[in-house]
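Before the break, one more example. Copy the sequence into your notebook; we will annotate it together after we see the structure.
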Amino acid sequence: MKYTKWLSALSLAVLAAAGAQAHENAGHAARHDAPVVKEQKPWGIAGDRKAVQRTIDIAMTDDMRFTPARVEVREGETVRLRVRNSGQVLHELVIGNKAQFDEHAAMMMKHPGMEHDEPEMTHVKPGASGEIVWNFNRPGEFDFACLIPGHYQAGMVGTLKVMARKEQQR
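Here is what the structure looks like once it is written out:
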């Protein structure tokens, strides 16, 4: 009887560990075949692939940095952010602002297995690439970050400057 309980407890522990490991290896849910829900955000709205005007390459590394860490786009521009993970661990790029990141990072710390997939984020396995197609239809300074637990806290953040139409004409 004790052996059966011990075996059951061991099985549950292995399954729980496998679930945590699966999150680290596979990342968040990725439903690239699902239709993109377009929701206006302060930093823009999901863009159409056919409307992409420019591609910007961003590298992610295990030193918890993005290169470049500052990106400039024009208001109204639809951009493909192509993200390459040259590290050995899962990384992500999420567009937003500090308040949203602080809230999301705290939630990720409490629920590291949480699944989500939004058009303003891409989760990239080691050695792989991902992309976000975004229409930056609001001017201002915004951010991008990796919200994998510990990465944001280690400084894995960048700045997105969306130049207003007026600035573009100077």
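The helical segments are 2-26, 98-110, 165-168. The domain at 2-168 is CATH 2.60.40.420 (Immunoglobulin-like). Try to locate both features in your own notes.
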